[in-house]
Amino acid sequence: MPVPASHERVEIDFGDRSYSILIGSGLLQDPQSFEGLPRAAQGLIVTNTTVSPLYMAALRAALAGRHEQVHVLELPDGEAYKDWKTLNSIFDSLLGHGADRKTVLYALGGGVVGDMTGFAAASYMRGVPFVQVPTTLLAQVDSSVGGKTAINHPLGKNMIGAFYQPQRVLCDLATLKTLPPREMSAGLAEVIKYGPIHDLDFLDWIEENLDALVAREPAALAHAVRRSCEIKALVVGQDEREAGLRAILNFGHTFGHAIESGLGYGEWLHGEAVGCGMVMAAELSRRLGGIDGAFVQRLTRLIEAAGLPVRGPALGAERYLELMRVDKKSEAGEIRFVVLDAPGSAKVRGAPDAMVREVLAACCEPA
Ligand code: NAD
Ligand code: GLY
Fold first, then answer.
1. Active site residues
2. CATH 3.30.110.10 fits 181-363, yes or no
3. What is the pTM of this model?
4. Disulfide-capable partner of 86 in 81, 150, 315, 367 (CB 3.0 to 4.6 Å)?
């Protein structure tokens, strides 16, 4: 597939479902970015009311030669809309336009749009092709890659979904220019995550380049997105359906998902909850003997410097435990955490409730 030289590319190996992640500026408006993808009579761009005015027209123009008709569906913006009702509006649109099983869906937006569009693509007529066009840092470094798709349930985050791989991921770094600072910080949480679980050199690099990332310097962003995608591709290429290894990508998420569900979806951003959750998971790792206090402090400092909260909200220990039991990693009611068994290495294991209560007491605001 011809790709302009200035674009970087990370391959993700799923056998005959392998695909490319393209990383560069100006990708979504470049028809070449879509070469080799399925052609069909119809394409549907799924986006939201915030992203649509910014980037939809450019994407639609780039797709004009690929489909006879390119429809657009604007979803309401926000984690609170990552639900059945909004998902159903995608099916309404597809059926309303007489979309067939070759119709290509394009997810233009952050992780919320990407996760819902992916789930719609997995389910409509039992599966139609889709392309991820992530426009948040978080979506470029994590959610658009690896095929996890889902909606939330009031009782648990991302509880209803499917593994379904996109045909391509286009990380257009130029879109990050319009991202609000709070959303940049949220994305940095998922970038930071890759350091403690897999790559201490990358952790060093993030610490040295945090200011450049916050300032959105193109070279720094390109490196952060590429290295994050490389690590994610390596992990999910070995364990697509999270039989084991893939779970390490959920470092900080058990605590983080409890914060998101406990406060109500959208109160804290997903990345904020993950950032704070990583502090809690690091403290648990220390108590379990995997890392020392200095490494916990190092991570906490970096997470705070990235503009993320480092103290959990006052949900109360019992509520945290109740929420964490609903986590997808739980087995027979036992909460399982991603912990660091050494700096740069993670594994999944249980922990005594008493120890988790101590971590919550140490890391959260008093209830
Ligand atoms: P999001 O999709 O809500 O986007 C954040 C905000 O930024 C929204 O208001 C959005 O409209 C706006 N926005 C998006 N792109 C913009 C741009 N370029 N300029 C200006 N505004 C822009 O949130 P997110 O952080 O991208 O994703 C979080 C979601 O991703 C959560 O639902 C989480 O569960 C999911 N997630 C999924 C995976 C996975 O593997 N599938 C991994 C991590 C997170
Ligand atoms: N974000 C975690 C995963 O994709 O597995």
1. 126, 148, 190, 232, 242, 246, 250, 253, 257, 270
2. no
3. 0.96
4. 81
